[in-house]
Each structure stands twice: as structure tokens, then as C-alpha cells.
Amino acid sequence: MSQDRARRPTLDTVAREVGVSRATVSNAYNRPDQLSPQLRERIIATARKLGYAGPDPVARSLATQRSGSVAFMLCEGLSSAFSDLALCIMLDALASTVDSGDRSLLLLPGIGDGGPRAESVIRAQTDVVVAYSLPDDAPALRAAQERKLPLVIVDQPVVPGSARVQVDDYGGALLAGRHLVELGHQRVAVLGLSLSANGQGGLATPARLREAHFRVTLDRYAGYLEGLAEGGIVAEQVPLWEAPGNTREFGREGTTWLLTQHPRPTAVLCMSDELALGALRAADELGLAVPGEVSIVGFDDTPAASWGTPSLTTVRQDLVEKGRQAGTLALRMLDGSRPGKPVTVGVELQVRASTGPAPR
Amino acid sequence: MSQDRARRPTLDTVAREVGVSRATVSNAYNRPDQLSPQLRERIIATARKLGYAGPDPVARSLATQRSGSVAFMLCEGLSSAFSDLALCIMLDALASTVDSGDRSLLLLPGIGDGGPRAESVIRAQTDVVVAYSLPDDAPALRAAQERKLPLVIVDQPVVPGSARVQVDDYGGALLAGRHLVELGHQRVAVLGLSLSANGQGGLATPARLREAHFRVTLDRYAGYLEGLAEGGIVAEQVPLWEAPGNTREFGREGTTWLLTQHPRPTAVLCMSDELALGALRAADELGLAVPGEVSIVGFDDTPAASWGTPSLTTVRQDLVEKGRQAGTLALRMLDGSRPGKPVTVGVELQVRASTGPAPR
DNA sequence: AGCGGTGTCTGAAGCGCTTCAGTTACCCTC
DNA sequence: GAGGGTAACTGAAGCGCTTCAGACACCGCT
Known about the structure:
Two copies of one chain form a homodimer. The first copy, chain A, is built from 15 helices and 13 strands. Chain A has 360 residues and is an alpha/beta fold.
């Protein structure tokens, strides 16, 4: 009989103790208007006495058919992801939006550079998935589709049937390119982010460019070229150095190479602020004045951008807005809404002290 | 009859289609050795055909009584948390450990500075909670205890019945203090982290110190004093400036104040690298040479510490180890292990270029 | 021939909760 | 005082899965 030993209390335990039905106890927690305040009071008190902390989340999820959490898949591991301040800011906005909708964030970090394992996604207790900047062929993406989970894509990649929020990468890059043209630059180099998820780096060949997977990189590159074209600069004259990761160190490495070419570029367009900060350092090490001898442009406008010396001219995207939109979209998908049009977050050029007129 | 319209397939659907029992289909996924390979093959194939992506995670959790995720509670929102590189590195190690144990990370960011809302914890689908540097009286903590969830505490606070991993804050600070003494410093100031979770800042009064909540801050302070005591410096001569948050800007602000006092300290012990980086900047702005006129010591040894000019002398803690330990502890708690002794992660002093002999 | 062992598969009892269609009891109204 | 409305509560049917104690057939052994 009494084998209900250290068993933790359930709805039933409480119901029995109070002498009401299970349904009533459930209502006490979920629909206070369905019972008299006194009874509710009594139920809650008894629950506390028995050490019952409220309906079990898992069981409740099963019954309601909603898990109450939003899964966030990202490309890399947490440490590289979180050193990406832009991602952090966005993620925070996402988390707040999602949390205020009474859901929590399930984090699915990537393994290597290819996103989370399919298995993690298969087993994830979630009812909507947000993917951030994943390679097109990420297994996690397929897994999510197999499970028919509503999908929200941020930036990358394009997946039919999913909601998406994206930054106007092309437009932002165009602004940056145009800015340099207006300053009279003629020899410009691009310091880019990864083209594909294999950690490769170095000067990007046309072949490499053709088989690229990351839309963000491609769009920004296209935008740069378009902006520069307004000054009569043609693509062939614009070297693209591919940084294997978004870190200062890679930025410095790439820039060191770019600035030791002949003829030396008078400006470097960097696809992130981190890269640009590394570029600044490289220029410094080479004894080149910024912006006197070389101009540097970033992308993202993270707080660090304004901290550097000189402060960084950069393309700002509204990261908070981006996260919020992604969250809203996710929440909306949960209500069964159709994906709808992609949401585009705007950009603007923040001109600061790292760019100036072309030398000579 | 046929109201099973757009209903998504379940174990049952597959079982019926194949003509076997539900148990067998379940085994096909969870215990391949329990059925013949051919049958398993057939089941998997049929499942795929029906668009069945495997056992529903929530239902499975209910049946197995384990949710498969580890909740991570932190004090602040994500954006401030993630600009804390030390946290990120640790979190990454934690995530990897946990993920390799086939579990995912449920993130419960804080609201304001007091940790997650109790409600978020109550509703979280998790079977173990890791708390990072929360105030002693965080509602989330109580909620976790109410649910009787196994608890792993990182750094802070001390909660009976929970596992914990902590850094030897005291020992690290002692090393830092002793280092300055050995360099001959006599007038030393401390730039500290928050004492309590209310965003207050400024010169810490004895009263403020007495009602402090954050162990980390207190331990480090005690360690500093102990180290300095070896040089005959007494506590009363060591001003403690409390930074309201762990940012460079606050570090700069505090240091500016400290370095404009008379007599001016010849060294500043900072409780984090971020603060120290701000301190560096403050010294620079005041036209004080580092380490010629003032020495700066950090804490944490984040990558940024070695990047700065001059590179930072700092106390290194093994963040990866810390995360890994926390993860291991969490996983172990799941198997019903008792908390056991606190795990302490070691520290060592990284002497770099920001400290030197006391001037004169 | 008889028997224990083994490899496969099944039935049914949960896991802890929500929810919906009732059922009472009570009050108001004409 | 019958009819209707409402507030308060209940019963039972799920939600989709796991698991454990069998059941059954077949094998090799003695």
C-alpha cells in the first residue's frame, strides 16, 4: 500500500488532501476565475504545506501541446559566439521578447562551424526554432524541418516556409563603399567574413567565391562593390581577404597582408567591427596612420567601435530591433501565423574618426 | 471516424502502419538491441514515409521523468552578461560538457540585477539548475529550491544542499596584493565589483561593506588586504571603489576618482579585467604612465587582458575548467549524487606589463 | 523427449497534467 | 413556483511516450 515513499507530490496529492478534484486544483493554478477565492486560497496553502511547487512543466507541456520554449540555434560554440558582441545584443533583445511572452530560451550551440547536431534538435523540447546565421546545409536545419517546427531565420540562410529577419547588408555595405568613394579612395580592399563553413581563410579566389555559402558575406561584398562602382572602381581591383573567424586577431592578420601589397590600398572595408579593430592594430604595427594613410571601415557598430583609437567609422544595424523582431516573429509563429514577408532591419553609416580623405 | 486530419503522426501511427505494437516502435528508437535489425529497418523506413521524426521530446520526458536540459540562471540580462568574456568562456565549456551528455542548455537570463523571475524557474523544463553569481536572496533561487531541483552554484551564493564550484578568489587576490607589495607599493587602491545587487557605486563605506551580498567581491577584497598586509599596509589605508557594473566605463570612472585623490595611489587592484582596462584608459587620460607612475592589476585574464597597451598583469582563473566542472557537477547531480565538497578552481598570477616598481 | 535459455515482440500500466462536457446547487425573475 | 441563468466544481478522456512483466517460438543440450 504505502509505497508512495519519497515520491514528490502531484496535483493529485493536493487534490486528495484538500478533498477536491484534480481539475479544481489545476484551475487554482491556471484559471483562478473558475473557483471561489476561498477554495483557491485553501488549495494553494495545502500545496505549499505538501511541498508542491505547482504543476509539473513537462506534464503541462504534454497536455497543452506547447513546450513554452524557443530554441536558438547558432553556428559556432558559445565562446566564439559570445565574443561577438553584435550577436549578444541581439540575443538579449530576443531573450527579453521571448521571456516576456512567458517562454524561455533553449540554447543550441554549434559544434565546430556547422551549427548544432541534428540530434540535439530532434530531442529539443521546443515549439519554435530560431536559426542564426547557419550554413545552408546545416543538419540542424533539416532536423527542424523534419520535425515540422516553425522556423525563424535570422540573416541566413534562405529557407522556404520560414519567417525571416534580415539586415540590409547590401544597403549597408553600399553606404560604406560610397563613403570611401566620396573621400576619393581608389584602391580599396575588403576584409571579409567566412564565405563557407570550413574555417578556410586567405585571399578569396573567384572559385572560392562561387561556391560560397554565407549570404551575409556575399551580400556585403556585393554592396561594397556596388558602392565602389560609383567611383569607377571595378571588382577585379578589389581584393577580398577572407577571415576564417570573426576575431580581432584574424582581422589583424588579414589586414597585415592586405596593407603590405603593392600598390597598397588606401582603405579597408571590414565586414565586422571586430575585424576592423584588428585592422586598426595591424595598421598601427605597420606604422601607417589612420586615417591619414589608410582608412578603415567597420560593420555592426558594436560598443567597442566607438571605444577604439581612432573611433571606428562603421555601418550600424539596429541589433536590438533585430532581436526583438526575431522574438516577435517566433512568438507569432507559435500562434500558427504564416511566415509572411521577411522583415528587414535598417542600417545607417556612422562616420567617425577612422576614415578620411584618400592620401595624396 | 476519420477526424485524424492534419494530425501529426505519433508512435501509434507508425506502429499501426507497420503492424507492430507501440512498444516495439519505441524500442526501435531507444533500444535497437530489443528487436531484429530487419524489423527496425522497416519501422524507421515507415516512420520516414509517414513524416514521423522520432519520439516527441516532451512526451518522452514525461515518461522518463527527465527533461534532458540544464537550466542556467544568471544575474543580468544577456547583453551585459555576454559582454563579460569570462562568463562566455565558462558558459561555452559548460555547454559543451552538458551537450555531450545529451542535454541542452536552457537559458534563464536575469531581469534587472536580481536574477531570473521566480516564475520562469517554476515553469522551466529542466532537471537541474546552475546558478551563476546570483545575489543571495534571488527569488529564482528560492523557486529552484521549492521545486527541489538539484542545484549547482558557481561562485555565488552559498546555498546549503547544493553542489558548488568556485574560484579561489581569496587566493588570487592575495597573490595580486603580494605582488604589489613585492614591487614596493605602499599606497594601493581597490577598484571593486558590486557589493550588492542594487546598482549602487562609489567609494564603499564600512556600512556598505557590512551589508554586502556578493561573496566574490568580498573574498577578493579580503585577499587583497591580506596580501597588502604582508607589506604592512592596513585596511584603512586602502580605499575601495565600488563599480556598479563590470564595464570599462565604470572602471574608468572609478579610477579617475581614485587617481585624483591625495596622496595618489601608486597602484590599483581591479577586480576584473574589464575594470582594469577602463583603469588603463583613465590613467592615460590623466597623463599618468603605466606602470611608471601607477600600476594596474586585473582579474580573470580574459583575452582582452593581453591585448591592451600595456598588457595587463592579472589573476588568471581557469575558466574552461570552471565551466567544465560546473557541467560535470550538474550531470552528476542528475544521477542523484550528493553535492559533495565544493570544487575549487585554481588561480595564478600573470605578470605582464601593467605593473612595475613603485615610483620614487 | 524434455528443459532451460535466448531472442523477439506485446499488453497494459503508468508519467502528471489540461480540458471539456457535464452536474449541482443556488439565486433571480416573472 | 416553474423556468432560466450562473457560479462552482467534477469525471473522464486524452496528450505521446516508456517500461516491465510476460508470452511465444525456437534453439541447442542432455
